[in-house]
Write a structure and sequence with these properties.
The protein is built from 15 helices and 10 strands. By secondary structure, it is α/β, with parallel strands linked by helices. It has 2 domains: 237 residues, Alpha-Beta Complex (Spore Coat Polysaccharide Biosynthesis Protein SpsA, Chain A); 76 residues. Strands 1, 2, 3, 4, 5, 6, 7, 8, 9 and 10 form a 10-stranded mixed beta sheet that branches. Helix 6 packs across helix 11 and helix 13 packs antiparallel against helix 15.
Amino acid sequence: MKFSVCIPNFNYGNYIGETIESVLNQDYNNVEILISDNNSTDNSWEVIQGYIKKDSRIKAQQNITNLGFAGNLDPASANASGEMLILLSSDDVMNPRALSIFKKLKEIEGDSFTIAGTGCQKIDSEGKDLEYMPPPRKLWFDSDVDEHLTEKIGHKVYKVKSGELLKRSMETFMGPLYFLATIYTKEIYEKVGGYSGSRLYNPDKWFHWKVLGSTEYCYFIDYPFFGYRWHQNNQLAQQISTGALKYYIDEYRATFEISKEMLQNATVSEQTLQKAFIDNVIHKQTFRKLKIGQPIEAFRLICLGFASYPGIMFKNKNTYALLLLNVLGKLSYYLLKPFKKNFAE
């Protein structure tokens, strides 16, 4: 069994060497490393070339222009020759046993194993442990634990019908797996059209939803087989800091770009999905913005909700509560602004 570890990179010259090393140090070595550099302006390309000279399993290509984070995901996987694919961020790392564990699970489950994920260890910019990221508790339940697989693998293994997991994901608007810690067959990757590069925010969630709509089972190994690096320059941190509505537009698109087959597999109606978007994206994020003292950003989200599904917004009592909180938040913001300025001076 051959694995293709596909690494999209942009300006992570100070991290990508460690990322590559973590793949080369696997205790299962039938693996290739494919790197797509997004026209980096730092020393990334020089670092990558240095590793290519050392190991023939590493191949790389450099984009003529920056395609954006999501736009660089499929180019990273374009020439994969392995049966199983992993998309690994160029600042993250793999546990030395990751590939052998996936191989073992594949051998046990056979064709039923199409997509799986694991837990992650969040690490800081220097590689120090911060916290463990377990299975998302709103999506993976104790009743999903497969005792047979847990005994065979040596770590707690969850096994859920893909349609059921897709339903849970749609109803909460959450991603079922972590971007860096997900493995899937090349066959299913090609069947669903890959990542398609159309999502700015959480492109992996949309990809995972498409896969769950076309498979039988999904697995999660409750152990940190990957290290997720958290720092101010990573993709998620940058998205959070901008406060741009364009990232929420992607969530809105999911409510009408979803296929009938995906809805049927999840036994979810279009109306249920639309309401879940309002409840779990618009209302939830509006409350979060108010909680951290950002009434202007909160109001913009409320406007997006009304522009998306006005009927659902008008009928939902939470809308009016958030509008009231938003008004109070704005009053506080403008009333206290002069005092904050004086205090700063």
